[in-house]
């Protein structure tokens, strides 16, 4: 399953197996829902189930890191691989935490510490201008490789605009979701049901872009 992968996704009813180059359970759940809704007969296998360790993310952009992770998982598994590199960008912090979102406070994947650090870093700015909203946006870049040395990875990206609250709200989601306020809905990402979040989130938008590219090939 190499160069013909894209067209076979649309026309082949047999279940295909892709590796998700992540062990993040929140991302895995979202991907399974998104692929299930698209009815593509894709079985997403997290790399941990295949004893694949995390890649070294030494790229300087979301795109670079997504490709690095996808190639790493595909090379070890021998399967097509999809990788997600995503994060939160806050313009008043120079777009930090950016590509370092998952390890912003030093320990990879510690959501509570990452959220606490973000709030602490924003506190002086809030004191200077208490009434000004802190705008932010989530970024998601998806990279799909048909095989480890795929010369033309499929890249899709999505952005989700919002604001950062002064305290967490909501019990759903993961990462910075409890702090990410969507003004037009008057909800945080962590207060949304999964279906609603997937329809409008950065990952959902990147996924729609990916599906459009696959359908066009």
Automatic annotation (TrEMBL):
Biological process (GO) annotations held by this record are:
nucleotide metabolic process; purine nucleoside triphosphate catabolic process
Q: What InterPro entries does the entry give?
A: dITP/XTP_pyrophosphatase, ITPase-like_fam, RdgB/HAM1
Pfam families xref list:
Ham1p_like
Q: Which residues bind Mg(2+)?
A: 85
CDD domains, sorted = HAM1 (cd00515)
The family annotation for this protein states:
Belongs to the HAM1 NTPase family.
Q: How does it assemble?
A: Homodimer.
Q: What is this protein called?
A: dITP/XTP pyrophosphatase
């Amino acid at each position: 399953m190499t160069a013909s992968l894209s067209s076979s996704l649309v026309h082949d009813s047999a279940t295909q197996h892709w590796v998700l180059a992540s062990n993040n359970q929140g991302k895995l759940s979202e991907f399974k829902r998104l692929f299930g809704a698209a009815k593509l007969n894709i079985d997403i296998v997290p790399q941990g189930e295949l004893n694949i360790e995390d890649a070294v993310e030494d790229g300087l952009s979301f795109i670079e890191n997504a490709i690095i992770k996808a190639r790493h998982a595909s090379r070890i598994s021998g399967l097509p691989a999809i990788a997600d590199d995503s994060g939160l960008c806050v313009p008043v912090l120079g777009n930090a935490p950016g590509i370092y979102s998952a390890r912003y406070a030093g320990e990879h994947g510690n959501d509570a510490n990452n959220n606490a650090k973000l709030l602490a870093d924003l506190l002086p700015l809030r004191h200077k201008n208490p009434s000004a909203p802190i705008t932010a946006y989530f970024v998601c870049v998806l990279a799909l490789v048909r095989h480890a040395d795929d010369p033309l990875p499929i890249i899709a990206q999505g952005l989700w605009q919002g604001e950062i609250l002064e305290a967490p709200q909501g019990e759903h989601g993961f990462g910075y979701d409890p702090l990410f306020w969507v003004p037009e809905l008057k909800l945080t990402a962590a207060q949304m049901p999964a279906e609603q979040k997937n329809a409008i989130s950065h990952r959902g938008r990147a996924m729609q872009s990916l599906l459009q590219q696959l359908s066009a090939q």
